[in-house]
Amino acid sequence: MQIRENIYGPDEINSEFSFENLISENESKIINLIFGMTGDYHLAQDLAQETFLKAFKSKQSFNGQSKISTWLYRIAVNTTIDYQRKTCVRKENPSDELPEKSDMSQDPDQKCQKTAMRDILFEAISELPTQLREVYVLREVNGCSTKEVSEILNISIELVKWRLHKARTQLRKSFTEGSAYKNVGKFKLKHTGIE
């Protein structure tokens, strides 16, 4: 079952109720995007709040020509880049602060294995150069289309494809050459966690 994004026009996001819905529908994706870029979950929460504050203040600039999530992602990316430029932050171990999805029915061994795989994956993602990490997180973690990533980062579709290929190649190389990544197994990363 595919979840369809609610369509917001320029007039709809000006109402307070709709803007609250907009936040609740997009908050986890924005936090995941920023977390993927910074490697710090608490900072991602703070920058997500700043993103929504900027979006609220500039809601008149949304013209409805793109999806609302694309507009929000662009604000989130710019907010994160601005923060990183100001502080020259060095990434910490990103997986330490990622909240766990609680599932009481899950086998403890399987849960432990997923946690270890998540730690390894986010460590590898955090080592990617910023431009590759942005594209990888938007495309692979948040599930944006290539066109959406192009619009969010204001780069060509060809450049998105090239950076995504480069990011995948570097991650694959990390997993095959790095001793910490041996015998990780197969997994798929989604915005809801590792499957």
Automatic annotation (TrEMBL):
Q: Which Gene3D superfamilies match?
A: 1.10.1740.10, Winged helix-like DNA-binding domain superfamily/Winged helix DNA-binding domain (1.10.10.10)
Q: Indicate the segments forming the RNA polymerase sigma factor 70 region 4 type domain, all copies.
A: 120-171
What positions does the domain RNA polymerase sigma-70 region occupy?
Answer: 22-86
- So which domain of life are we looking at? Bacteria
Per UniProt, the keywords (alphabetical) are: DNA-binding, Sigma factor, Transcription, Transcription regulation
Q: Matching PROSITE patterns, A to Z?
A: SIGMA70_ECF
> Which InterPro entries does the UniProt entry name for this protein?
RNA_pol_sigma-70-like, RNA_pol_sigma-70_dom, RNA_pol_sigma70_ECF_CS, RNA_pol_sigma70_r2, RNA_pol_sigma70_r4_t2, RNA_pol_sigma_r2, RNA_pol_sigma_r3/r4-like, WH-like_DNA-bd_sf
Q: Name one Pfam family in it.
A: Sigma70_r2
Family, according to the entry, reads as follows: Belongs to the sigma-70 factor family. ECF subfamily.
User: What PANTHER family does the database record attribute to this sequence?
Assistant: RNA POLYMERASE ECF-TYPE SIGMA FACTO (PTHR43133), RNA POLYMERASE SIGMA FACTOR HI_1459-RELATED (PTHR43133:SF8)
Name of the protein in its database record: RNA polymerase sigma factor
Organism source for this protein?
Desulfosporosinus nitroreducens
